[in-house]
Structure formats: structure tokens, C-alpha cells
Amino acid sequence: MSRKAIVSEVSAADPTSPQSIVRFEGVSMRYGRDPEVLTDISFELPQGAFYFLTGPSGSGKSTLLKLIYLAERASRGRIEIFGQDLALLRRKDRPFMRRRIGVVFQEFRLLDHLSCFDNAALAPRIAGRKPAAYRADVADLLAWVGLGDRMHAMPPALSGGEKQRLAIARAVINRPDLLLADEPTGNVDEAMGLRILRLLLELNRVGATVLIATHDKDLVVRSGKPVLHLEAGRLSPYPGQAPDLDE
Questions:
Q1: Measuring CA to CA, which residue among 17, 19, 21, 8 is closest to residue 210?
Q2: Buried b vs exposed e over 3-21: b needs ≥16 C-beta within 10 Å?
Q3: Residues 6 or more apart from 72 whose CB is under 8 A from it?
Q4: CA 110 centroid distance within chain
Q5: Cα–Cα distance between 29 and 128 in angstroms, integer?
Q6: Cα–Cα distance for residue pair 76/179, rounded to 1 Å
Q7: Of the candidates 21, 18, 6, the residue with the CA atom closest to the CA atom of residue 177
Q8: Are 160 and 190 in contact (CB under 8 A)?
Q9: Which residues of 33-52 are buried (b: 16+ CB within 10 A; e: fewer)?
Q10: One-letter-per-residue 3-state SS of the chain
Q11: In a structure prediction context, what are the per-residue pLDDT tens digits for the chain, which is 247 residues long?
């Protein structure tokens, strides 16, 4: 599959899809009897949106992402993903919903004993696809993120920027409708951070809804994209830019 094919197929628009990809209504989250990590969070991510999620350490960014990709359940409030109320989602349907969500973790979570190619191919392999059905897709995607000459390298031999781009390739190989990235530029220099931003913007341009958690204020300013800003577990205006939740 060529780069053009990757771009056209990553997240093809579905006319039957709900307008809102993510919707939070009065969502709060606490772990055990500890104080709430998130309190009365309400926002909406329309289909095709690109948002940043900002806030100081401990403000609840990672917890909010976990709620979206079904790693945690809210203590109260309503969460809809792809128009489906998560409180009504059957357990057997959760894996199918997760397949529509790509996640780029802050710590990469690459498997050091697998090559770049095999790391990127992990999702289709787990889904039971035959190697012949995804081999060309994986090779072209690795070339797209600039790792075409590193597909047989092992993760310990990669730089931080290369690991991050491999993590992105792994997250988008199944062409997710929603892409979440937790500090995707936190371990790279400015030039590589901009390159990663361009990759994410390109995925958004062709239809993927994107939410990026970051501390990188320069990245936010350069992009000009809207912001969801957390302070002590609550949404608040981003310094210098109020979040436009209706965009």
C-alpha cells in the first residue's frame, strides 16, 4: 500500500457515524477513597477534531485519556464514545470499540524482543490477520513515519524520536477513528517534535479525530489548535486561549 493509500484509508469518513466521537457529561473520577482526580468534566470532540489536552502534572490528563480508551471507568457522569454510552456497553463489545481507538503511550510500550516491523504489525497479528494481508501495509507505514530503513532494527537500538514514530505507526496500523497520544513529544528534541506534530496533523487531515496530552506549550502555540486545559481535575481556560468546545 502506497503512502497515498495510507492517507486515504487511515480513517475514512463514515456517513452513518455519530457527529460526536467523544462526549463527557459531568464526569468525575476517583481511585478508591482518594480525592477526585477529575471533577464534573464536560466536553465534546466532534468527528475530525484535533485538540490538545494540557495541564500541570497531576491535573488528571492521563486519567482522562484512560477513561476514553476504556482502561478505567468513571465514578459518575456519562461518557459516550462513537455515540455509545459506555455504561451500557456490553463487556463483549469493549474489545471491538478499542480497535477503533489508537493510543500512543508516553512510555512507548514497545516490545524489545520484536523488530520494528513486528512491533508495528502487532495489532493486525493479534486480530488474526494473515501476514500476507498486512505485510505491505506495515512496510509502507514504517516508510511513511521515516523508519523504512529501520524495520528490522530492535527497539533498544532506536533513538527516542525513532521509538516515538514507531509507537505512532503501531497505533495507526488499524486505521483508528480516534487517536490518543500521551506526551508524544516529551522525549524528543524540538525538530523531532515538529516532525511528529506534522504526522499527527496529517492523520487528522484525512479524518482521524486526534487528542494529544502535552506539556509542550510551544507545540500548542505552533499548531493553533484548540485546547482542553485541566487544573486540579477541572476544565479551565487555557492561558492565552479559551477552549472552544463547540469547534
A1: 21
A2: eeebeeebbeeeeeeeebb
A3: 29, 63, 66
A4: 16
A5: 35
A6: 24
A7: 21
A8: no
A9: eeebbbbebebbbbbbbbbb
A10: CCHHHHHHHCCCCCCCCCCEEEEEEEEEECCCCCCCCEEEEEEEEECCCEEEEECCCCCCHHHHHHHHCCCCCCCEEEEEECCEEHHHCCHHHHHHHHCCEEEECCCCCCCCCCCHHHHHCHHHHHCCCCHHHHHHHHHHHHHHCCCCCCCCCCHHHCCHHHHHHHHHHHHHCCCCCEEEEECCCCCCCHHHHHHHHHHHHHHHHCCCEEEEECCCHHHHHHHCCCEEEEECCEEECECCECCCCCC
A11: 344 444 444 444 444 444 889 999 999 999 998 999 999 999 999 999 999 999 998 899 999 999 999 999 999 999 999 999 999 999 999 988 998 999 998 888 999 999 999 999 998 998 888 999 999 999 999 998 899 999 999 999 999 889 989 999 999 898 899 999 999 888 778 888 888 888 889 889 988 999 999 988 888 988 889 999 999 999 988 775 544 434 3
